[in-house]
Design a protein that fits this description.
alpha+beta; 12 helices
């Protein structure tokens, strides 16, 4: 048997292609995320750079799709670093290594931070967390409250404090307000500057993607939700949704209400409202933040993989004489290279990242 790939533009998927794509996606529980929906791929293709879909064949039979974007000779999953799950959408018996995939698409390197399914035979194992409310929100809330009584008591106290300070708490879901989305993007950009992370919303295509998905009407679309205390806006979150899965994507809160846990209450109230519309899985992404363990009752294993050389990272580590920083540097470089379509943007990003890294190293050396 011989594998081959036919590379097509994202808008060149036929009706039959989309039908096969959806059939494979819906047949596998590990591919239920909206990031695996063909509509997400096409939305990125409409605004992104270097995007394509590899139609994968075994002999003459179509056996899978891999949507990706090129940055020179490096391939990233389409939409990276905004895309929270990646992999090959294909038949369950498809056996294709990452090395083989790179060869088929003509890439010397492939980088993905949360690879699912075929090909992930080596990498860094990571965990994502979900809240499953198959029996309904009320039963889920009762079970989590019983298991983590102190946490939910603390949040109930925070809600009372919020309402005493601002007025009754309300959540508005399904908003399509472009100005409100711009405000959320502005809050995220401020957060990236404050924390020294690369500003993924500096390139125009990432902002355009969120706006396009917010206005979409199909199976895969974005939803903007907002939490208010009285008439005061306290938190915003953009989520991506498809089928029965609601993926919490970009949260932000305003400083004036931060001590009252507005982000957590926005998530909880969003779940309560949209569970009535049939959403049963709420994906919280990577397991880093402590609060997620109190809200989530299942997990998914993914792999962070980098196949091929990383000369920029290796050179930077040698220049800084900090080889142990290789993983951190690689992650930073991958985010910058994936989101920045131009060499100038990539160079600017790496200079700013290096400056921030040197500041931290100096602070560490001085004991600050």
């Amino acid at each position: 048997m011989r594998h081959r790939a036919v590379i097509v533009a994202t808008f060149d998927l036929s009706f039959d292609d989309k039908a096969k794509w959806r059939a494979w996606q819906l047949s596998r529980s590990d591919l239920v995320s909206p990031f695996f929906h063909w509509a997400f791929t096409q939305a990125v293709g409409e605004v992104g750079h270097g995007t394509a879909v590899a139609k994968l064949y075994r002999d003459d039979a179509l056996v899978g799709f891999f949507p990706f974007q090129r940055r020179g000779r490096t391939a990233y999953p389409i939409g990276a670093p905004l895309n929270d799950y990646h992999g090959i959408i294909g038949a369950p018996d498809l056996d294709l290594s990452i090395d083989q995939l790179c060869g088929l698409i003509g890439a010397s390197r492939l980088s993905a931070n949360s690879w699912v399914g075929q090909g992930a035979d080596r990498g860094i194992a990571l965990t994502t967390l979900q809240a499953e409310v198959s029996e309904g929100y009320a039963d889920w809330f009762a079970a989590q409250s019983q298991a983590f009584n102190k946490f939910f008591k603390d949040k109930a106290r925070a809600r009372r404090g919020l309402e005493a300070a601002f007025g009754p708490m309300t959540v508005r879901t399904g908003l399509r307000d472009a100005a409100l989305l711009d405000r959320l993007i502005g809050l995220k950009r401020e957060q990236y500057r404050r924390t020294g992370r690369h500003d993924i919303f500096k390139p125009e295509w990432t902002r355009a993607l969120l706006h396009r998905l917010l206005q979409a009407d199909g199976e895969c679309r974005a939803s903007l939700c907002a939490l208010y205390g009285g008439e005061t806006l306290l938190a915003l979150e953009l989520s991506l949704l498809a089928d029965h899965v609601w993926h919490f994507w970009f949260p932000a809160y305003l400083e004036e209400g931060a001590r009252f846990s507005p982000g957590i209450w926005l998530s909880l109230e969003t779940m309560r409202v949209v569970a009535e519309d049939g959403y049963r899985v709420f994906d919280y992404g990577f397991s880093g933040e402590a609060y997620k363990k109190y809200l989530c009752n299942r997990e998914q294993q993914v792999q962070e993989i980098t196949q091929g050389p990383t000369p920029v990272v290796n050179a930077a580590a040698r220049a800084l004489r900090q080889p142990e920083l290789g993983l951190s540097l690689r992650r930073r470089w991958s985010a910058i290279e994936a989101v920045e379509p131009s060499r100038l943007g990539q160079a600017t990003g790496i200079i700013l990242a290096a400056g921030g890294l040197m500041d931290r190293l100096r602070g560490r050396a001085s004991g600050k």
